[in-house]
Amino acid sequence: MKNPLFILSGLVLSFILGFYLNFNSPVSIKEEIPTLSNIQSNPTMKNIKLGAFSISLSVKDLNVSKEFYENLGFSVFAGSMESNYLIMKNGDSLIGLFHGMFEGNILTFNPGWDQNANTVDYFDDVRSIQQHLKSKDIKLETEADEQTSGPASLMLKDPDGNLILLDQHI
Asked: Does residue 39 lie within any of the structural domains?
């Protein structure tokens, strides 16, 4: 059987790609990719910039969950029923509803994005965050390739076993 973390990484990457491609307004390549001078260097990592936050929930019934969160004031922001996931938004709050894609829930941070999936001017690259976490002896479930730049991700678990994904796509 394939490694569950590898499968989960693929699913989350698919989610993010679908999330990004569902925007109605066109974005130029120049806006999507910051230059190295735009990425803030944060050598002390005292105030790590993790980026946009969302939670990805594994749901039993997508229709029931959609209705529940709509009753809480959320509306569909991205995704589709046919794709078995919806991204729901209420103000700056984002919740991903996923049916049959993974077990448990995932806390997700997107370095380089704000809550509307717009590129921010300054952020901490996921590889810098990874180096900081390693220096604090935090065990990583998956790692970003530190010899690369641009899109990358890493996963870790908090002390209670909750999965945390840091997923940078710029």
From this structure: no
